[in-house]
Amino acid sequence: MATTVAGVEAPFESDGKSVNVTLNAGNVNKGAVVLVDGWLGLAGEDALSGEALALIADDREYQFTVPAGLAVAKGAIVYITIATVTGHYPDDEAYTTTAGAGKWAFFKATAAKDANNIVTGVMIAHNALLS
Question: Which of 27, 55, 115, 125, by CA, is between 20 and 30 Å from 16?
Answer without folding.
Answer: 27
